[in-house]
Amino acid sequence: MNQWQGNSQIDRLGSQWTQVQELYQVKGALEGFKGIRKQHQVNEFTVYNSTLQVKGDVLLEKSINTNWLQFHFQLKGISKTTKFESRQSFIALPQCFYLKYVPADYCQLQFKENTDYESFGFRMTPEDFLDSFLPNFEELNQLTQAIEQQQAYSLSGKGIPLTQTLREIILQMKNCGYTGQLRALFMESKMTDLVFAMVQQVQAQHAFANPTIDSKAKVKSAYEFMRHHLDDKLSIKRIAREVGLNEFALKKGFKEVFGTSVIQCLIDLRLDKAYEQMLSTHKSISTIAYETGYSAVGNFSNAFYKKFGFRPSVLRNGGEAFGV
Asked: What is the count of structural domains for the chain?
């Protein structure tokens, strides 16, 4: 029997809606307390979406009788979880995700006054995750060891910020309107997307937490690739693929190595080329502006001025006032 079941109601999509008071022992300020947990079983996954509103400090306590692996996405509010047997605590921050392995224990969730809380996530057995995902990701070797030793594990104590990709996948899952087998297939597919998007972000953070010579070299190679392909239709995806990085790692790497974004580097490179064309060709300013990527000459002129300190017309007219 599902350990999270209470006197739940089943909605038209087959999801259980359960009052939080039926799942936990609630202590503290109960006036104004409202809590709902919606969950759905999809093969080996248990998907949940919890909402909570409290006016005063509240504690939720519950015994967990089985070991499980949890992918937790904190959408709103701050919460503190304490595992009594392992004597571990962690604080979950809004718009962050957490990967946790939790052996059987007695847990306590703490919410401070005036909390508007929402979380989304899914749980599965460690065995299912080991078989389905873990062999592909070296970054999660510590998780393997924790599972083997039955020790509590958290991927990042401070949480890892949600990306736009993760938020979009979660929204699609929350708004899923399918029923039956089609719903199960859709949800399972999206959960796989969540796992891979999450691990991809972890890989990128590992790559640049302490930038290696190899990762720095790839970022510099990306810069050179951009410099030699300014006339191409470039995208973050294409640039990343050319140098063997994922998109997140490329963008984070540019911040680490150059102190600016990929897009800003590309703009600067194209403005440098425009500067050279102003001196070495007879092309009109409007033509150069268009080739640089600006449909309006005024926008090109403003960007040129911001970078070089004078308008392109000054350079074309000889630049006597600037000694050009």
From this structure: 3
